[in-house]
Amino acid sequence: MHILVTNDDGVWAPGLLALALEMRKLGRVTVFGPDRNWSASGHVKTLDRPLRVRETTLADGTAAFASDGAPSDCVALALLGLIDPTDLVVSGINPHANISHDVTYSGTVTAAMEAVISNVKGLAVSLDSPEASQETLDYTTAAVVTRHIVERMMADGLPDGVVLNVNVPYLKEDQLKGYMITRQGLRVYRDALDQRLDPRGRPYYWIGGEAPTGIEEEGTDVGALAQGYVSITPLQLDLTYYKAIDVLKKWTWG
Q1: Tens digits of per-residue pLDDT, 79-130?
Q2: Cα 203 from Cα 201, distance rounded (Å)
Q3: How far is CA 168 from CA 67, 68, 182, 201, 236, in A?
Q4: What is the pLDDT of residue 64?
Q5: pTM exceeds cut of 0.90
Q6: Most buried residue, 13, 36, 173, 184, by CB count within 10 Å?
Q7: How many other C-beta atoms can be found within 10 angstroms of the C-beta atom of residue 214?
Q8: pLDDT in tens, 157-196
Q9: How far apart are CA 72 and CA 11, in angstroms?
Q10: Structural domains present in the chain
Q11: Helix and strand numbers, DSSP H then E, in the chain
């Protein structure tokens, strides 16, 4: 099995290395990530400039590819033929959770979505670490959890067009309550607009505010993490809200 490992924090991020090391237990791994941090970049496809790719070396001395494109660009380049055919794309490990509405912002999740667009299985994994933590994060549990999920996915199958969004509590493996199949919960954002002046007196703006929280509802990704479970949320690229179709058809036109 050939696995492509990518992320949105940059190819030299420790979470990516931890993931690559664990995926090597399952098969051949190619690492291909962005050359800088693309957090909250969303689903990007670069069409207005050329993309540069160079070989680099990870902290363990192994080779990797780095691109000046977005995470989804890295996946697209790889699957369009820059590397050998790939069986699976695993994106992560993001240092913070990607739950609820985060999935539309997340470069981690949308990199996995890019794989599914190309009919390759895609999985995104994030670690629910403390938001203000200054310690060096331990990605060991999240990496092992991801390996277990990939093993199950490859053995039991996964429907076409499905992206798995995995979020792992920041716990030791033996402290986890288990695995829970979840739906997207409700994220509570507390964004605030910070307006400042540059040295020439011109205004500029910074989107800030407090860290987001979530509503701990049973059966959701938010609720599962709060209870100490690994959250596995199957996502689809079809965003159509089918219940609204009949309502819209009743609109009067002209």
Answers
A1: 999 999 999 999 999 999 999 999 999 999 999 999 999 999 999 999 999 8
A2: 7
A3: 27, 29, 13, 45, 20
A4: 97
A5: yes
A6: 13
A7: 21
A8: 999 999 999 999 999 999 999 999 999 999 998 899 999 9
A9: 13
A10: 2-185+216-249 (3.40.1210.10)
A11: 7, 11
User: How many Cα atoms occupy the beta-carbon half-sphere of 152 within 13 Å?
Assistant: 10
How many Å apart are CA 47 and CA 127, to the nearest integer?
Answer: 31
Q: What is the mean pLDDT of residues 133-137?
A: 76
Burial of 101 (0-12, 13-18, 19+ CB in 10 A): middle
String of DSSP letters for 154-207: HHH---TTEEEEEEEESS-GGG--EEEE-B--EEEEEEEEEEEE-TTS-EEEEE
Tokens 């490990």 identify what position? 93
Residue 25 above 70 pLDDT? Answer: yes
Q: Is residue 201 within 8 Å of residue 80, measured between CB atoms?
A: no
5 burial via Cβ count (<10 Å: 0-12, 13-18, 19+): buried
Helical segments of 34-128, H only = 71-77, 102-105, 107-117
The radius of gyration of the chain from alpha carbons, rounded to an integer in Å, stands at: 19
CA 92 to CA 117: how far, in whole Å?
A: 18
pLDDT exceeds cutoff 80 at 135? no
Q: What pLDDT is attached to residue 132? A: 66
Distance of CA 102 to the CA centre of its chain: 9
Q: Is the peptide bond before 93 cis (omega within 30 degrees of 0)?
A: yes
Q: What angle do CA 241, 246, 251 make, to 5 degrees?
A: 110
Mean pLDDT of the chain: 94
